[in-house]
Amino acid sequence: QFLKRQLKRSHEERPIIGKSEEMLAVFKMVDKVADTDSTILIYGESGTGKELIAREIHYRSRRASGPFVSINCGALPKDLLESELFGHVKGSFTGAIRDQEGMLKVAESGSFFLDEVGETSPATQVKLLRVLQEREIIPVGGTKPIKIDVRLIAATNADLERQVSEGRFRADLYYRLNVIPIRLPALRERRDDVPLLVDHFLHKCCGDDLKTCSREAMDLLGKYDWPGNVRELENVIERAVILDEGGVIGPDDLPIKIRTGGLR
Fold it and tell me: Which residues pair with 153 in a beta bridge?
């Protein structure tokens, strides 16, 4: 119970910032779908906050008291990913010295966030389809299916429809995942939120010794295209806070690419 309270607190300390029409539409969709058990597929470029939205859905759902488990499919070798997701039995491969539960089983009664699902191998896609259709998993090297009770939330920064048409992603899995699609806008599509985000990150980085952002610097931040989205903006503000010596962040505290509008 203590750990669950700590997790919820850490979630509440990472709010989703935005008042633009695009983000209000996302919040409205989250309100509608959070308390269902439907599978959700979140689309968005890297750095737009897909995991934050997935956590918000979890903590607003009837599964909030259960675990929120996440895994990034692009961060693990494809042979290791299958073992992490579904578990393995002792002796199923070199180094498997004991039975190990998969992350999908660890998420029992909670939500499982599958980030960058487009990076999965064809073999893993077949097993994920079984999870969605039968609500069961078979560990690597195992023969007996294990029932699970998990809500699946997937995310991707890839064009899955294109991958399906090119034969790189299973069509049946795509349609099972894409029950409720949520698209997160890129930061350049919601420039009105930049000042709000800047203010939030300044408070986060400065603590009691709060710094401000000059109008000139804010204008530059608002005009930049942010290929790395919110994550890039957070890094820029953290850098500016460290470099600034006067208490007011000016253009000179920003990276050259932002001062020159993305030109080098």
Answer: 40, 113
